[in-house]
Amino acid sequence: MTEEPAPARAVVTRRPTGPGPAARPARVPIPPGGEPERDPETVRALVHGQLRTGLAVVGLLAALLGPLPLAFRSVPQLGGDGRPVVVWAVLGVVVYPLFVLLGRWYVRRAELTERRFNDAGTRARDGSGTAG
Amino acid sequence: MNQAYGVVAVTSVVVASGLIGALGLRISRTTSDFYVASRSVPPRLNAAAISGEYLSAASFLGIAGLVLSQGVDMLWVPVGYTAGYLVLLALVAAPLRRSGAYTLPDFAEARLESTVVRRITSILVVVVGWLYLVPQLQGAGLTLGLVTGAPGWTGALIVAIVVALSVAAGGMRSITFVQAFQYWLKLTALLVPALFLLLAWQGDPSARTALDEPPAFRDHTRVRVDDTVRVRVHEQLRVTVDGTVDGRAHQASVLLLQPGVHRVDTGTTLHFPVRARVAGRSEDTTAPARGSRGSDASPREDKGHSLYATYGLILATFLGTMGLPHVVVRFYTSPDGRAARRTTVVVLGLVGAFYLLPPLYGVLGRIYTPELLLTGNTDAVVLLLPERLIGGVAGDLLGALVAAGACAAFLSTASGLTMAVAGVLSQDVLPSPRTGYFRLASLIAVAVPLAVYTLVPGIPVAKAVGLAFAVSASSFCPLLVLGIWWRGLTAAGASAGLLTGGGAALTAVALTMTESVGTGWPRTLSAWPAVWSVPLAFLTMILVSLADRRGAPLHTDAIMARLHLPEPPANHSPAARGRRLTTDEDPTAGSPAP
Amino acid sequence: MNTLALAVSPTGTVLLVLCGAAAGLLAGAVLARRRVAVGGVGDSVEKATFRTLHTASLAAPPLRAGLTPDTARKAVRRLRPLLGSSALLLTDTDRVLAWGGSGEHHTDEVMQHARDVLGSGRAGVFTVDCAQEDCPVRAGVVVPLSVDQDLRGTLAAFGPEKSDALARATEEVARWVSVQLELAELDRARTSLIEAELRALRAQISPHFIYNSLAAIASFVRTDPERARGLLLEFAEFTRYSFRRHGDFTTLAEELRSIEQYLELERARFGTRLEVTLQIAPEVLPVALPFLCLQPLVENAVKHGLEGSARGSHIALTAEDEGSFARVVIEDNGIGMDPDRLRRILHGDGGPSSGIGLCNVDDRLRQVYGDEHGLVIETGVGAGMKVTVRIPKYRSGVHPAPR
């Protein structure tokens, strides 16, 4: 980025880093901090709420897809001649939009829970003022 | 396949990726677009990057191969690959991002404040990364072999060198844009030829066979067997043989093969009549080579096995995705937990859209390239179909496009994995982290899977990936899920669970890869370990943690709060910026200044 | 692997699974009980020494975090096997923090003795009356813990009978615990010193920069009111960030935003004489880093770039992704600096007014990430200056404070 040949530069660090055992990181124990103080009980309630939503999605997924391998096998005449077509359609096409829908539902629920939590937090912090 | 087109296609993918990687930084020269340059990656871009890195050779080549060789049951593979993101979204995405961890060892340390757990996680990450890299190299060997006609190992070697060099030299200064580009390339490379293939299939009156009919030769077909295979014949079959079958030499003689397993030696040419049902390659290499009693399991038991295998596959993929090293790393790019969640939903859409395509190739392969079942080279079906079905210059061009997509598939996943593995190697496994070690680490990260690939060839690509998923599901899944949702998890519990679950799954993988287990249930159990190893890992973690209640990390409350507390709503949105100044709370108001 | 080929039957596989489970459980048990397992029977002197030192090293980290019920519990668990007493406890000045071993029903009585010891400041030997036949807590010693002659609590050990050996050993352990607590205070003092420096850094930004910025803004009020308004808003945002009170860490994105505001204000003064190029890999924007550790470097570059340069100054800021690290480079084409003088500045003896900024940033980076993450500066007289920082994407304890 300099146009004319610039004078030479030298590399400077505070300590000349030569070979040696000096390269261990100095792990100063820093207590985790910086979080705004929240009552552990409210945090616990938030965690439980989110876990419920998460498990609902996973449970729904298991309930919808879990029995399918058994079903496809135990009912060979499922839909007569069309059996494979049904299987192809379900496993090849239908499940994918279903996943996206489940995912969107989850995100909506999880964000709602968080918004409520934040609102409760601001209400608790200042009775009437606006949040920054 | 037209070699000139193929070479041009593959080369241009490499060059384009390199250019995007080297120049893809956001550059701004005036302060007015400073803000644009320093804006975090939006969920859509990051989702494309995650999908690009995730859709590997196993997805691009392997799924079609499996559908071709094993039929409709194998549709569970792409379903599982996608559903894994739904589980990740529901149980892991936002808290993982909020933990601030870049890699899984980081997460283990952040949550459990223990260097021991960090170590164990690091080693498992490296092993899972390697397991996942082997099939990528295999896909590379296959693709480049078909494109250039070189033997498989040269392709793998070339890709290993390219990846190691680009990672070691830090050639990818901005990997997000490269990976996002490769997602769209992969989608295009399957979508465009698929449209042409469907048209060709529509116009072929003889090909409208039902999907579930056993594959059969449409014409008089000649198949040359390049290495000794055992084939399973389902019904009496009349073939003309030039070579050695079942240890007896034949010269252009007609042979009536009885149902059962037969051995066909290297260099043999078989001529099949029209509409002959295709004899499939027998997976079971230990079955007696001769005679009609090749079947070692009753049909009923067989059914049980495949049902178990399906559930094993489902568990491994649903729960294993969250622990894949190259996937975890990408979530760091999201600016916060909320963005991580939204990103995952977009990934679900992008990955799902992609997975609509490979099964199509598999089905068409059953109709048009059934001889692959006999040669066992089923992973090549995606690459061969355009030429077979369309032919001419159009077929060559489409074939080159597919080859470019395959190239993007193994390049993106291989470089992502190498980055992740090398990072962990240089930070946690090699002594004392220095800059130079990262180069060494990236060489090691590629060299080991390359060695494994040359020593243990011939595992179907998607199946080898399945093993990596199984190990991830039985070690990282419990670590992440329990770590995020259960405050009772202790370092001792996590270590025990990682060692038990990961160790058990790894043992099963080793047994499967070296083919040390015989037949029947032991073989099935070790080929699909997730069904028993995942519960085992969860149970061990929970029980040992309960027994070690006092070993809970010092700051569990603070850590749980960090993982789950939502970020305050951003007041830096572009609309708000510069237009209106929000009032700032005065922390000193009302209380004496500190 | 062939030795494992015996697993050809279902029972074989089940055995394999059980072996795996047993191995894992064993490993867990070992990890959980490692403190007891170190050493063995028939110790030689070396083994005993090793065991003692090992136990001490395990007990040190909790104590280095200060004396709380949680840390006391962990320390007591490690230390009791060392003394072999039936009960070992740590108290602060008014309650028992952790009781290891049996006889917990004596809590009140023992606390009474502890108060006596804290009152006198000298260790005392006590006997305890107990109605329970098998209670192993009969007699023991209570030793005060002090930091700088300041009594912080006591360490007490009890056994079935009076024992001089136990008393002496307990005093030694108490002395060791006191040293650990002293070190904990030192850590805290060091942290607060750095914080004080950071406050000084914030204060240092303000006076002339605030004056100059306001003067520049004022010059636009008539000619270009819209620009003046924009600058005023940038100024407000910049000061809000710089004077922020909570949290030691921020994200690269936030830091860049403040640099953007800073540069916008400087350009209001210097116009086209100040040219800036920015190259950012978006992957590294979420990296957490010490608050205000880049802005002073940019300020330095601006100062050096504009000093004595007629042709105008060019500053390039690059942030690249390097696997588990982010590499940030700030380069200017200004007057540069004599490397020896810079070395003196970095060692903190460059005289007054000579870039507390550089020195402070270097200090904080080294304190947080370790010595290999200090500033690397390439410069020479008239050769411009290039400052490189390598920041790990994750380091335990480094988390950006919420905005």
UniProtKB/TrEMBL annotation, chain A:
Organism whose genome encodes this protein: Streptomyces viridochromogenes
Protein name (database record): Uncharacterized protein
Keyword tags: Membrane, Transmembrane, Transmembrane helix
Chain intervals with Low complexity compositional bias: 14-27
Source taxon at top rank: Bacteria
Chain segments annotated as transmembrane: 54-73, 85-107
Region of interest called Disordered, as start-end residue ranges on this chain: 1-40
From TrEMBL, chain C:
Keywords carried by this UniProt record: Kinase, Transferase
An MF annotation (GO) of this entry: phosphorelay sensor kinase activity
Protein name: Histidine kinase
Gene3D superfamilies to which the protein is assigned, alphabetical: Histidine kinase-like ATPase, C-terminal domain
A single GO cellular-component term on record: membrane
InterPro entries: Bact_2-comp_sensor_kinase (IPR050640), HATPase_C_sf (IPR036890), HATPase_dom (IPR003594), His_kinase_dom (IPR005467), Sig_transdc_His_kin_internal (IPR010559)
Residue span(s) of domain Histidine kinase: 294-395
Domain of life (superkingdom): Bacteria
